[in-house]
Amino acid sequence: MEPYKNCLSLTRKLISFNTVNPPGQERDCAEYLAKLLEDGGFKVTLYEFSERRTSLIAQIGSYGDKAPICFAGHMDTVPLGGNRWEKDPFSGEVNGDKVFGRGSSDMKGGLAAMVVAALRLANIANRKAGITLVCTASEETGCQGARHLAKLGNALREAGALLIGEPTSNYPLVGHKGALWLEVSTSGVTAHGSMPEQGENAIYKAAQVVTRLQAYKFDISPHPLLGAPTLNVGTISGGMNINSVPDRAVIGVDIRTIPNQRNRDVYENLQSYLGQEVEIERIVDAGSIITEPEHEWVQEVFDIMEPFCRKRPVARGVTYFTDASVLTPAFGNPPTLILGPGEPAMAHKLDEFCYISKIEEAVEAYVEIGNKWCG
Ligand SMILES: [Zn+2]
User: How many CA atoms lie within 13 A of 112 on its CB side?
Assistant: First the structure.
């Protein structure tokens, strides 16, 4: 197998696996990486939460006094979208400093950089701490792969620091908001549309719920880095046909939470705010993540990233969630940073690309961060 000194060829190889989620189908990609990492001296285990939905954990070095550093990324991508791509989404076409393809920025470029860095780090002499690499399935639809690994109990073991390679254009981020996606249902009684007085209209009830949601206020002051929590009604559906009284309507609600705000409390508060007659189902429940910027390891990574960012990074967070929502608590809350070569603006876009020079820089940065931790 190709040794992949060159991270571009691995990025292109990863792009060639169609891991559009749904349906995901990460197994081939995971098996490919497993072989590569095994050849590099890693102990690799594959885990499937369902048929062909495969995550991978690779480990090298013993668990001594210092817990390993963990590099983590997801293998799935979002769908291609409704419009036609000009580039082939799976060929990894290169044009100048850009490599194109679904997942190039989010986050196969980052994953390739992590794998190449891990393979280089495998050869550190007198290693003080181990290296763990976690490649997950199904991050994009709510971190199912990471959740499965966390639930197994003994698969993830421990980590002293966690790096998530999501697209940040190589800027280290200290945290992100959590997500709580809800389906709020109202129910009624159906009747013929010409005799509405005989029914009970679930859409009228839903309309009131939407108005209540629009007026909802979070009882928490904004986080200094992550800002205020938000709520958005994203979808609404209901009714079977125009000439019936609808007996069911469903409202999709996207809430983004901040530290010091538990998703569970938000959910319970919303249930009592809307009343017991509405049914609330949790579709995605991912907590927020924040690491103290003063943490020694964060400052160490800021030191390393200063030349790459051309100025000293400052503590920043983002609104989107990552596998850290699941992995950080599963590892016992080690310091966590989000740092990857992808372009945040390119994630989920048509003709997605990643700068090749950023992927190369990410390899250098990961190797340096790993060396500091393990060397
Ligand atoms: Zn991603």
Answer: 32
Q: Which domain holds residue 52?
A: 7-176+288-374
Q: How many angstroms is it from 241 CA to the middle of ligand 1?
A: 38
* 3 state DSSP class of 297: helix
CATH number, position 236: 3.30.70.360
Does residue 20 lie in a domain region? yes
pLDDT, tens digit, for every residue of 298-355? 999 999 999 999 999 999 999 999 999 999 999 999 999 999 999 999 988 999 999 9
**Which tokens sit at 21?**
């989620």
Q: How far is the CA of 140 from the centre of ligand 1 (A)?
A: 6
C-alpha of residue 330 to centroid of ligand 1, in Å: 19
Is the pTM here over 0.90, yes or no? Answer: yes
CA proximity to 34, closest of 23, 21, 48: 48
Residue given tokens 């990460």 in the structure block = 26
Give the C-alpha separation, 339 to 298, whole Å.
11
Asked if residue 295 and residue 259 are part of one domain, the reply reads: no
Residues 12 and 148 reside in one and the same domain: yes
